[in-house]
Each structure stands twice: as structure tokens, then as C-alpha cells.
Write a structure and sequence with these properties.
mainly beta
């Protein structure tokens, strides 16, 4: 008889989260290897969904909104491959706007928008903007950017816009270059399909922006060779988007004697950061990550988030079989700009209940976080309590598609998350958030 993770959830048994952690993650995610992941923490065990869509703790419920293929207007439907998402205040009090990515290149359900919002007609990716009421009911939606490719993650800016990132360096049939970052105004006033070229052309994943200096920290999910961790320093610290348009300096992280971040396996390890200027950020002839002989790399650099005065960035996994220096099932790092050092906060060990951390968001309840799992087998939203105990917040009961775009509404009352495929859909999750245990 085999025991699956699904059986553990439905059987109500406590599992074991295989995470080794030392250090504090700023008191967000403390636990130890083999820590209990069960009903004693969080909101209790997950209750099987009679509809077979989303398992949640008792007292919580969800709405599905903006499913791939839903009609928007004549000839326009909701694009596919829902991915990175951020929330913003809506057009009226108690409303929320979401800007959501669609991770597809010249495949999938096409993002269709007017020419003024379309970058490359050959590309099917882009963003949609949604507005919901206080209950999570969809009020309106439209395609807010089209003609971009493989829009994976991104980041919310201090000036209230969304940076959508292309995780590609190009595809067959393109009419313009790809691998850029674009800005999307959630209120649609100044969105233009114009790349922010200063942030470089590479397989972008996510970005976290320092609100004080406007420095952007960017992850690259790429292979042969593996991607890099970058920072972009604009020439001025004022003006938001206009500062980015004026350009700046793109640099790559290079840690002495650490060619691969997977070599660091001891949480709490702090390393001095050195930053090396990128010779050609536009990668006119050579991919950015191939412009260095000696540099620090990592397999699967994914989510990024700014908080507590630091940039958090995630490595989803590392496998020696893929050419990495060591194995792990996920890392969370921080970069402290004041100390100019990176610190390994968290390591997922292979073989645990959860693996493949990707998107991350801060919970307004108890100082914890919610992580979107993109690992093997079943997929969860993973939360932590105010005492830093991990728990399963939700489970994809329909299929093995990853969770993406996890983010809270500005008032903290609704947790939004996407199922990326089968079909892509956005969930609005509500419930007794104050009931957090542990």
C-alpha cells in the first residue's frame, strides 16, 4: 500500500515539513527540521472540498473568478496561464484591483488588447486587471497589456504600479525583442507597451523594489548556465517610473568563493556581497548571464519580495543531476542593503512534505508568510503562525498545477491566489483570519 500526500491531508494525519532553518527570517519563518505540520497550528486541518477544487480549513471559503476562456468583450476572453499578481486600492472604497500576469509566449489563450496596449502582435502573454468588491465578487476585468511573452512574476512598486517580467529571451516568430520588464498602471492611466530597458534583457522572474532608494532587485530563472541575482540602481531616487526611464546601472551579485548558491547549506550563513557591472544589459549579442567568466549563480531563482528593509529572494530547488553544485528542495535568502550581505534564511530538504517554494507574500495576521508551492505532486499554499509554525493553508484538489500570484487585498480580508492551469483561475479566499493558532 502506498501513502500519498493527498492521503495524509484527507486522513487528517499530521505530516512532517522537512525544513532546516536557523536564523530568524526576521521572525517570519522559524522552525526546525522535522517540525510538525498538523492540526495544532494555523487554522486546523484542510477539509476536502465537495467540488474537488480547493481544500481549505474549517470556516474558510473561496470564490472562483476570472477563469481562462471567460468572455470579457467581443472577441476577447480571459488569457491563460495565470501567474504573478499584486493588489491595489480600487476605484472606490472597499474595492480591490488586481493586476495578473499570463505566462505564455506564442501559445495558450491569447491576451488581446488595443494596439496602444500591445507590444508584439506575435506574443500571446500579457496582463489582466480585475476589480472586485469587498466580498471578492468580480466587478470588471480587461486585458491591460498584450503582446508580451512569458509574463511570469514581477513586483509591486512603491509608487503603486506593477512591474511585469518576461521570463524569456525570445521565441519563434517574434517581431520585437523579448526578455524585458514593463510597467502596468492598475488604474490604466499611463500603461504603455514600452520596455524598461535599464532593467536588462534576460529571463526575468521577479523583482523587489527598495522604497527608499528605488533600487530594484531582480531574479533570473535560466539554465545553461544558471541565472543570476541582479540589482538595478536608477540615476535618481525620485520620480518612480520616470527614474527608471532615465536608466541607471545594472549589476550582478558575485560572492567570493561561492560560484553556486546551492553550496551554502547552513541556514544563518551570512556572506558579503560584491556587485559587478553588467557589460551589456540589453544582451545585443550575448545573454547577460553569459557575459561573466566568474560570477555567483543559482538554479531556479524565482520569487522576490521586499520587507523589513531587505530584499527576499527564493531558489525553488537545486539538483546536481541538472548541473548544480548541491541538492536542495528550496532556499529563501535575504539581501540587506545596509550591511551589503546576503543571508541564507531557510532550506527545504529533499523528500519533505512541501517542496519548490515560488511566490511569497507577507500575511497581515501574526507576522507570518504565505508561500505558493510549485513542486512535485500535490500543490499547497503554506502559511506560518505568529510563533513561526508552518501549516498547510490550502491544497489544489483538482490537479497538480502550481499555485501562483498569492497576495492579500489591501485591507487584509481576502487572500487571492491563482491555479495556473487546467484551466487557469483566480481564487478569492475568505474566512476567520483572526483565528490563527500557534
Amino acid at each position: 500500500m502506498s501513502v500519498t500526500r493527498r492521503g495524509v491531508v484527507k486522513g487528517g494525519a499530521a505530516g512532517a515539513l522537512s525544513i532546516a532553518l536557523a536564523g530568524s527570517l526576521d521572525s517570519i519563518f522559524q522552525t526546525s527540521a522535522g517540525a510538525d505540520v498538523g492540526e495544532a497550528y494555523g487554522y486546523g486541518p484542510l477539509i476536502p472540498d465537495p467540488k474537488g477544487v480547493l481544500d481549505l480549513p474549517k470556516g474558510f471559503s473561496y470564490k472562483t473568478l476570472s477563469t481562462e476562456g471567460d468572455p470579457i468583450s467581443d472577441g476577447v476572453v480571459v488569457p491563460g496561464h495565470h501567474d504573478g499578481t499584486a493588489t491595489f486600492p480600487g476605484s472606490r472604497p472597499h474595492r480591490t484591483r488586481l493586476v495578473r500576469n499570463h505566462e505564455q509566449s506564442n501559445n495558450g489563450t491569447r491576451a488581446v488588447a488595443p494596439a496602444a496596449l500591445t507590444y508584439d502582435p506575435a506574443a500571446n502573454g500579457g496582463t489582466t486587471t480585475l476589480e472586485v468588491d469587498r466580498h471578492g465578487e468580480l466587478l470588471s476585468q480587461y486585458v491591460s497589456l498584450a503582446g508580451t511573452s512569458t509574463n511570469c512574476a514581477g513586483g509591486r512598486t512603491p509608487w503603486g504600479t506593477w512591474l511585469t517580467c518576461e521570463e524569456t529571451e525570445g521565441f519563434t516568430g517574434q517581431t520585437k525583442s523579448h526578455g524585458w520588464v514593463f510597467e502596468v498602471d492598475p488604474h490604466g492611466k499611463r500603461t504603455k507597451p514600452v520596455p524598461l530597458t535599464g532593467l536588462g534583457r534576460f529571463a526575468h522572474e521577479a523583482v523587489a523594489v527598495d522604497p527608499h532608494t528605488l533600487t530594484a532587485y531582480l531574479t533570473e530563472d535560466a539554465a545553461k548556465p544558471f541565472g543570476l541575482f541582479y540589482r538595478f540602481r536608477p540615476r535618481t531616487h525620485r520620480g518612480g517610473y520616470h527614474a527608471y526611464l532615465q536608466g541607471g546601472r545594472l549589476e550582478a551579485l558575485n560572492v567570493r568563493d561561492v560560484p553556486d548558491l546551492s553550496l551554502v547549506q547552513e541556514p544563518g550563513t551570512k556572506l558579503h556581497a560584491r556587485w559587478v557591472a553588467v557589460p551589456d544589459p540589453s544582451a545585443k549579442t550575448t545573454s547577460v548571464r553569459k557575459q561573466f567568466d566568474t560570477i555567483t549563480r543559482s538554479q531556479k531563482l524565482e520569487g522576490a519580495w521586499w520587507g523589513h528593509g531587505k530584499a527576499y529572494f527564493v531558489c525553488s530547488y537545486s539538483k546536481k543531476a541538472d548541473g548544480a553544485a548541491a541538492d536542495h528542495a528550496g532556499q529563501v535568502w535575504t539581501y540587506d542593503p545596509h550591511r551589503n550581505e546576503i543571508e541564507l534564511e531557510l532550506v527545504f530538504k529533499p523528500g519533505g512534505r512541501f517542496d519548490g517554494p515560488d511566490n511569497i507574500t507577507v500575511s497581515p495576521y501574526g507576522g507570518g508568510v504565505i508561500l505558493a508551492e510549485d513542486g512535485d505532486g500535490e500543490q499547497h499554499l503554506i502559511g506560518t503562525t505568529k510563533k513561526n509554525k508552518p501549516f498547510a493553508m490550502a491544497r489544489n484538489a483538482l490537479n497538480d498545477s502550481e499555485f501562483t500570484g498569492v497576495t492579500f487585498s489591501p485591507d487584509g480580508k481576502i487572500l487571492f491566489a491563482n491555479r495556473q492551469e487546467g484551466p487557469g483561475v483566480t481564487f478569492a479566499i475568505t474566512g476567520p483570519w483572526h483565528r490563527l493558532r500557534g
